[in-house]
Design goal:
The longest helix is centred in the C-terminal third of the chain and has 16 residues. It is globular, with a radius of gyration of 18 Å. α5 runs antiparallel to α6. Helix content is 34%, strand content 24%. It has 10 helices and 10 strands. Strands 6-7-8-3-9-10 form a 6-stranded mixed sheet, with helices on both faces. This is Iron complex transport system ATP-binding protein. GO terms for molecular function: ATP binding; ATP hydrolysis activity. Keywords: ATP-binding, Nucleotide-binding, Transport.
Length: 245
Amino acid sequence: MELLKVENLTIGYAADKVLAAGINLSLNKNELVGLVGQNGVGKSTLIRTICGLQPSMKGHIQLSGEPIRDLTPKSIAKKISVVLTGKPDSLNLSVLELIALGRHPYSGWLGSLKKEDKEKIEDAITQMEINYLAQKRLFELSDGQLQKVMIARALAQDTDLIILDEPTSHLDLRNKIEVLNLLKKISESGKGVLISTHEIQLSAQVCNQFWCMDFGKEILVGEPKKLIVSGELQNYLHVPKESLG
């Protein structure tokens, strides 16, 4: 099932600040896709545009077959959950309280949790293997633990599509591997997952596809290992071919 379809999309900030144009992409259930490219090429802008957080300059975005421009923010929040870079505004929240915020699209303005909401929260905590953290405050967590909690909040939101902007940045190697493996399991459970990442070699082990951006070029799409073996990925990243061998 096609969860995301992007057609002839142009992203940027003004007519003289176009970052990429003619973007055509799709993402399906059970797929983990890595968005890669140099700093400043437009990865975060593409993510924000796909999520409806920033207007597109041209083109069309569909979420599960529906044009995003026809959807309300609440409807979008039921189709797509987002984990952006940066820490939550309040680190005094408990882990449970932060994850419960993922149910906001369903709980109404009073934020009262029904039985189904509580079950979704518990499922997310279990899936991310953070039951032992539930009562801790966010300021007590390591970077790796906090990232898992942020992903659990996205899971509690119960969307078919999850998008994460550099989910392994600032993590040590062990936590990078653990988070990527958890995201792979999430995609295999029937969801679609898109991550922007600089962890090329680690991500190549778990991603079904890479979307590679380069300045002034069409986005390169393909299986990570094939793109690496052919040298196409290295050309887009402007690194020596042997660096990813």
